[in-house]
Write a structure and sequence with these properties.
Strand order of the largest sheet: 6-7-5-4-10-11-12
Number of strands: 12
Largest sheet: 7 strands, parallel
CATH architecture of the largest domain: 3-Layer(aba) Sandwich
Distance between the termini: 66 Å
CATH class of the largest domain: Alpha Beta
Helix content: 25-40%
Shape: elongated
Order of helices and strands: HHEHEHEHEHEHEEEEHEHEHEH
Number of domains: 2
Strand content: 15-25%
Amino acid sequence: MRRLVSQGLTRNGLLVVGEAASADEARAQIKVLSPDVLTLDIEMPGMNGLQFLENLMRLRPMPVIMVSTLTAERAPAALAAFELGALDVVLKPTSAAEVATFHDELAEKVRWAAHARRPLLPRRVDDEHVPALRTPAWIDGTVIVLGASTGGTEALQQVFRQLPGDLPPIVVVQHIPAGFSTAFAATLNRVSAVTVSEAEDGDVLETGRAYVAPGGRQLRIQTRGPRRRLRVTDEGRHNHHAPSVDLLFGSLAPTAAAFPIVAGLMTGMGADGAVGLKALHDGGARTFAQDQVSSVVWGMPQAAIRLGAADEVVGVRDMASCIVRLIGAQHTRATSAMAR
């Protein structure tokens, strides 16, 4: 596996300065070689990857990309790695046909990680003060859509901790490997007053619920009058991603003038979601993008801002209150239009 990782990074023009078969070897090499980015397996002899990551982030924080097998048991471990400070996760290939995709994805994430504003440092989010937010007035058909990538698993948890439980339905695309989205939805559900689940094809959007796009699949919203239903498909990648934020946002764009929509693009590498956010913004949705200071990787939000797609630029700590405020603003706009 180390040979496969090294070959993929080298073939994509990156310099591999060292390899380590254990935590002890890795610790010694990091001190001498001072790499820009570390790729780290969850399973290692002796100290496992999570224990090593926790120690590393306490003593020498640096950008880390986890390399993991796709199993139900590994998914919680991968999410724990995000909480400990890992930037992203890449799945090990299970066949020769998957090696080329693995090489490209790993190289892309390592490049972005090298330019990340900072690694996610461990923090005790359970101990943070969570402000109480009141539910604003809203009308049928209102929906909240959020897109995120690198750094998004932790940022979304911070947002969901603050949201009141009786909001309009929320639909989330987080770039995450297939098999990990179920565990991530369960994590959000544990920390939120909103009921969070992994999206299933045919789900009808309901008040007080949030739906997380399944990893490896595409998610759209189908609208018939004020009634909205989810469509989950296996159509492959869009913008190199499955799920894709642009596909989710684009499915709502034709209805943006008729029904209130609040849409936000959060931390992440690349530009997925920027074009979709612009389409929603131009159609009448209220939109926001995460600011550079609180973004682990300011790629997707920056692309949206450059397109003029964001009404507001906000930090992650203020995002929940921004969502609540924009829902209220959409309600005021809608009721004023009806009065006229």
